Amino acid sequence: MQQVATVNDAFLKIAGRGTRTAWLWQDQRDAWRPISAAEVYGRVRALATALARWGVGKGDRVALLSENRWEWPVTDFAVLALGAVGVPLYMTLTAEQVGYMLRDSGAKVAVASNQEQYDKLSAVCDAGGAPGLEHIVVMDDGKFEMATTFSALLEQFPAMLAEDAGHDAAFDAMVAAAQPDDLATIIYTSGTTGEPKGVMLTHGNLASNITLSTVPFGFTERDSCISFLPLSHVTARHLDYALMLDGVTLAHCPKFDHIRATMQAVKPTIFVAVPRVYEKIRHATEGKSHGLKKAILNWALRVGAQHRQQTLEGKRPGGVRWAMADALVFAKIRAAFGGRVWLFVSGGAPLGMDTAGWFADVGIRILEGYGLTETSPLIALNRPQKQRIGTVGPVLDNVEVRFAADGELEVRGPSVFKGYWNKPQETAEAFTEDGWLRTGDIGNMDADGFLSITDRKKELLKTSGGKLIAPQPIENKLKAHALVGNAALVGDKHKFACVLISPNFAILESWAKVKGVVYTDRKDLAKQQRVVARYQRIVDAVNGTLAPFETIKRMAVVAEEWSIDGDELTPSMKLKRRVVEHKYAAEIAAFYQDEATATK
Q1: How many Å apart are CA 281 and CA 271, to the nearest integer?
Q2: Among the four 144, 414, 458, 547, which has the fewest Cβ within 10 Å?
């Protein structure tokens, strides 16, 4: 176990490994090139020196608006080295949203990755929306009227950038001076409901989590992982800290569209993703299967289901039938991940039993975890030695949990945040009178200590008859079908539940071609009688697994595929329920126009 008290302690360990490769990055020719630990140290030291010359010091806030690339952790570590506070922002934010967070945090410097992100900062500054912002840095080279380029800052210190430069005692002493109670970062919640809040996490909060989370896995310098989940999200940032501390090589993948090619080039041994990524991989597999291929896939899945328990126990099934299924189907799915992954992990949202079971049936065990931004983030995690499908695993050793009378999970421990930036009332409301954090999640724990999360407390639907419906498990059942891109259950304060379905249009268009469905555009396709009937059959099948009060009485197929860009999903791919309900208010109203007399 790598014991560290601060993130800066972790940095000194990570950067102290000399010529060993720490990161991989892709150049303009798409070749993957290494960055050694010594080079990491030199770049962090050079950037920290440049920022210090601008007057950045202890407690100052530095905003970071970038995709995953090596400059992101260099900026992060440089800011923390100075005792300053990192404020990571999602690249999908609008200029207006960025402006709010710059003002709210009082950021002194903003570091952006490219022209698009710089334009947001420029627009905010032109409108006078960030009075405290003194400097802008852009990672890409080019000419920017109001900014300095990243390379120009580093090139001021060529001696520091030399791989044989060694460590500087004064710089190391400054880095090591950070204390566990020092504020390390302000992370704005993605805002599924209400105004974004800045979660304040200290060095101690983050360090308490990274020293424990990877211990059960035994990662070594032989392992590698692709960093593609947004580093502005605490889960990805925590993951990268922990893996770097364990000596794992990270390959930074800036665009999700490149992940498939990156997996083939890097061939990682560890794969961590949000459930939506796993769902897309499943859908792609099923969507490409027609005729004989579909028959072979279904046969292989039946064989795999007979060996599911062995897979979940981490064992490789035996027997001629499984070997045939593996050769025909399962090995090809593993090859899509690069062929070397021995650990699959899911987090950020509920994975769902259907998706977890499907992957187990193809010989891939996915270990699910759970946490919040406010808990740095991990609360619970399945481990190779102790896991149970459908749960998020046992809680971490330094975290305590309990349940309120209404089933809400409450936690306390060293990873729990100190409060929301500039929001004392919201901070007070987040805690119970005796100091436990209210997670906002409904859950339970079984006799063996495995934690399960049912749904968000605020998202539970209460019918007019007083029945509570948890939407996420039902939505996950629907999303398990390849034709369903996303789903939003509605019905709060109504007699019955209904659902909006956003198609997986790539699969739907392929299905329509095979079935001979003629249409002009996606809007027309979503209205086609045969299409609506097909989705109704999917809903009917799910209804067969639900309690009577949960059953979906009506459904509508919408003409849009929900996305982050469309604002229906958060950057971590969670459904923005309020946005969807507002956008499709007319469709929802139609569900209930005859509610008083409706029997179906």
Answers
A1: 13
A2: 547
Which pTM value belongs to this model? 0.90
On average, the pLDDT of the chain sits at: 94
Helix (H, G, I), strand (E, B) or coil at 260: helix
Contact 180, 3 (CB under 8 A): no
Q: Which two tokens stand for residue 431?
A: 């805690």
**Do residues 232 and 88 touch, judged by C-beta distance below 8 A?**
yes
Closest C-alpha to 374, from 200, 195, 191, 572? 200
Which residues have a Cβ under 8 Å from the Cβ of 534 and sit 6 or more positions away?
483, 511
CATH code for residues 460-591: 3.30.300.30
Here the tokens at position 523 are 């809007």
Task: Report the C-alpha gap between 467 and 16 in whole angstroms.
Answer: 58
pLDDT over 60 (residue 296): yes
Fold of the 7-178 domain = Rossmann fold (3.40.50)
Helix axes 71-81, 169-176, angle to 10 degrees: 80
- Amino acid identity for residue 334 in this structure: R
pLDDT at 284 over 60: yes
pLDDT at 450 over 90: yes
Cα(485)–Cα(471) distance, integer angstroms: 16
